[in-house]
Amino acid sequence: MKIIEIFETMEYSPAPENPALALDWLKEHKSKFGLFINGKWCKAKSGKVFSTDNPASGKKLASISEAGKSDVDSAVRAAKLAFPKWKALSGHERARYLYALARQLQKHSRLFAVLETMDNGKTIRETRDIDIPLVIRHFYHHSGWAQLLESEFPEHMAIGPIGQIIPWNFPLLMLSWKVAPALAAGNTVVLKPAEYTSLTALLFAEICSQVGLPPGVFNLVTGPGQTGSLMVNHSDLKKIAFTGSTDVGRLIREATADTDKKLTLELGGKSPFIIFEDADLDSAIEGLVDAIWFNQGQVCCAGSRLLVQESVAEKVIDRLKRRMAKLRVGDPLDKSMDMGAIIAPIQKERIQNLVDQGKKEGAAIWQWEGKLPQNAEKKGDGCYFPPTLFTNVSPASIIAQTEIFGPVLVSMTFRTTDEAVMLANNSAYGLAASVWSENINQALHVAPKLKAGVVWINCTNQFDASVGFGGYRESGYGREGGHEGMFEYLKPKESGISKNQFRISVAKVKASATTALSLDRTAKLYIGGKQARPDSGYSLNVVNADGSLAGEIGDGNRKDIRNAVEAAHKASGWQSSTPHLRAQILYFLAENLETRAVEFKNRITQLTGVTEKQAALEVKTAVSRIFTYAALADKHEGLIHQPPMRGLALALNEPIGVLGLVCPDEAPLLSMLSMLLPAIAMGNSVVLVPSRPFALVATDFYQVLETSDVPSGVVNIVTGDSAKLGTVLAKHDDVAGLWVAGTKTECTEACKLSTGNMKIIWTNNGKQLDWFDNQQSEGREWMRRASQVKNVWIPYGE
Length: 798
Ligand code: NDP
Known about the structure:
This protein is α/β, with parallel strands linked by helices. It folds into three domains: 38-50 and 71-243, Aldehyde Dehydrogenase, Chain A, domain 1 (3-Layer(aba) Sandwich); 272-370 and 384-470, Aldehyde Dehydrogenase, Chain A, domain 2, CATH 3.40.309; 522-644 and 656-790, Aldehyde Dehydrogenase, Chain A, domain 1 (3-Layer(aba) Sandwich), CATH 3.40.605.10. It is 42% helix and 18% strand. The strands form eight sheets. The protein has a ten-stranded mixed beta sheet, with helices on both faces. Helix 21 (597-608) crosses helix 22 (612-633). The structure holds NADPH dihydro-nicotinamide-adenine-dinucleotide phosphate. NADPH dihydro-nicotinamide-adenine-dinucleotide phosphate is lined by residues 165-169, 192, 194-195, 224-225, 228-229, 232, 243-245, 248, 251, 266-268, 300, 403, 405. NADPH dihydro-nicotinamide-adenine-dinucleotide phosphate binds at residues 165-169, 192, 194-195, 224-225, 228-229, 232, 243-245, 248, 251, 266-268, 300, 403, 405. Residues 41-493, 545-759 form the Aldehyde dehydrogenase domain.
């Protein structure tokens, strides 16, 4: 094209990136790759291979080994053997390896970027300017955490060999998000990349060899979902870190339910992009382009639901269409493209089906009208999809609720701020949200109300190694990146053998005992701040250690749990109350419990049969524990991250919402309070199921709650068969989190049954805790358990 023509048409000329470097690398390997296990390359034992193609051309790039059971076993064995030595290195030694990896990645950044573009179909602009620089930043940042591990996390230690399963949308970036913190914390890794995109992980394994990373510290097993499933079910992997679809996340949670495996799940999303009428509309539209057409919309946190204030909706949609018309879709290796290829034909088909669904639902569609590239190899349609906009979308429609995972934006309007928040939260997901307003008060007023792990104010798709990323609700749990992300790869140091052996032999009622009860001593349930009769109308006997009848408790059922959950939701004001207020109420609670110390001591002695001295110690420790959480209520503060931008990210510790607590039998007062206190100190409201045989301790305790100004509905107590009630809580979709201290079977059931809304779950996995031991049973670890981190990004400057 002549220069004069360029001036006249303002058309872009092609600006292709040279693929020679990547093609040479493939040639060097004869386009064949094995597995990387224990520092060596090997073929899959089965001899099976699969191919990886360039989505932009359909052309095969390489053959890759498919790891089967014995390969996964070998990789896990290597990681297990390497773990003790790797963990025993000083933080400084591990930091040097991570630094070396960062440097090597930096030196080969162009090769990584080109290879990623060829394997994934995303534009070179993105791999070169976003993915790879962020990968490098992750290794630098986590080299720092390795160096500081002992001083910054003195109470924590590495977990062990870890299985990591990553998706195809950000192949090397997801590898770095997982591998860097895992190695920094002293764990070893077995990683499985997605079948579509293994190449950059294979190149990364070469770099591990080049820097002399000890064998077995990083192992790579390529293969399909089945390979991932073998890892999930491997008993020697102590944690699974997964990014991918919510459906597979659910399967993983169910498969690991009866194990000790730690789990972090980073799942799908349907993130709102909210434009208020006072926003800088041109900036917001540029943000929108980035939110939904970045990586062809194949982004878990894509701003795929546009919510725009009615007064500016027409203007926004108009300008947006004009901007969309100018987007450039084509060869991903062309440096001036905005959008590249969709990962695979099947994914393109899935997007098309959802778009057809949208049309059927009556939404208005507007699509980019440029010419999509053809598939050079197969002479058919290329694997491209046009930028697409739906207006007139109903909030309940399938396209407004389902993750499309493609370049498709659905838009809706709102009138008031409350309506915007309601629409934004009208999703099963909760990964990210973007808020656009020139009024910072307005934006900061809205941010805490959004159910999302990340909120971007006047910006979108910002990521950094120092800032945690992860979701609420069905978007999963756990955070990746930053200080908060390090905890996901650590566990509390063990405090040795439990000093306190609990006597939990439950006596049987003596045949003659019932007749001795002349007055009605049935303790009712406690729901919404009131004593309530159980729906069933039945009660259960509670027996003293000597076999005499102590009293009766209500036999709670599904309906009582439903009422309790409803009451807990009504107490949402507790979440927004000031930490100072919560602290004051907790101190008052301690005071009131102490006033009745003798009564509780007697009750515990009679019910459990422990000595008076032991029971007195339990009450005394309980009072001290209340003081601890009163103290922590206003001290479990967030952090201010300073990512490399003109701005900051506020990491806020937020309550989870309504928590279900199923309490154990041992030390019934202390164990119940050890679970209840961190939950309410953080601002959660709870539905508590006390120990079945010692439930009278809990029903005595609601009298203390009543006198301590704990607002109605913050603590609800439902007595009865704790295993059955635990099951109801696990299945309840309005319960956001569940803690179960029970038998192994109860814990497994709770994990399996609570995947409906992907509750955040903690169980003791059937192991007794020492509730008197402060290290195990009190403190910040519990506050972390009772909270989730929301990162609010705030850019500043003109
Ligand atoms: P998957 O969840 O299937 O894949 C994610 C990773 O898990 C891949 O490595 C995959 O292997 C592996 N995997 C698949 N099945 C199992 C299993 N049973 N046990 C263990 N590991 C398994 O996502 P898809 O690639 O199929 O994409 C489907 C949809 O998921 C997308 O349309 C999108 O909605 C969502 N998604 C969300 C992502 C996110 O970032 N949150 C990322 C990717 C997808 P393999 O690829 O080899 O099959």
